[in-house]
Amino acid sequence: MNNTSAAEAQRAETAGERTGGCPCGRIRFITRPPAVFRHTCACCHCQKPGGTPVMWWVGFEKATRTGEGGGPAWYETFEGQAKRGFCPTCGCRLAAIDSDVTEIGINATALDDTSAPDLVPIHMSFRHNAGHWLPPVPGTEHSTAG
What we know:
Blueprint: E1 2-4, H1 6-14, E2 18-21, E3 28-31, E4 36-41, H2 44-50, E5 55-60, E6 63-66, E7 73-78, E8 82-86, E9 93-98, E10 104-107, E11 123-125, E12 141-143
Parallel strand pairs: 1-6, 4-11, 11-12
Antiparallel strand pairs: 2-3, 3-6, 4-5, 5-10, 7-8, 8-9, 9-10
């Protein structure tokens, strides 16, 4: 994530860009549409650290840091293939970078507003790993992408 000023963050909200961050406020960011590869993921690296049967991810061309709080810490989840970014203060899962994808994955729940229709998941990664009691996301395509 690149760094920008607080004034740029305020302008982003009126320019159709999306803002987000972690609960403690250390990390804040802006993303720019379009949202791509909107999906839920049930891989073990989303389930265990996320404390949930699935995580909700949305790809963006880039995410730009705002404010003075610094960037996420990164943990390599699939060696040489993927890493996940989290806040080193509160532990919130914020981002994912996969080696075979040019976009940055943003944990959709880290966005300030998740109501936009272009954030609705249309894929479900690692569906076979999801809780057997959890119904699949309606109308999603299966993917093994992490």
